[in-house]
Amino acid sequence: MGRRRKNLIGSFSLGEDDFTCSRWEHWPPIEIIIHEEPLRVRGELGNEAYHRVRIWEDACGLLQMSPDKCPNCPYVAVNGVLAEAAGGGGYKPQTTKATRIAAMRKKR
What we know:
With 108 residues, the protein is α+β, with helices and mostly antiparallel strands. The chain is 36% helix and 13% strand. The protein has a domain at 11-85. The radius of gyration is 19 Å and the shape is flat.
């Protein structure tokens, strides 16, 4: 699915801050706008489109940005900057080289 040129989910301002969705190019999925229900999407377009709709529904589920829900969303950009850093700050994957060195050390 390609990128969109029009922001369908919109944006809003609270005080001096402008809130926009960092996923505006893909959310809401066009399939949900056309077919309105996930099960109708599955019936008419198949499982791939259905799963795309379900991911959006679990993560967001809004057709328009809301001042009630969006300020706490991990995907919101405040004044053009993501409110939370990408990746969540969890486990950092090792490089292939580091994995090989660790495996070699185990063998010794």
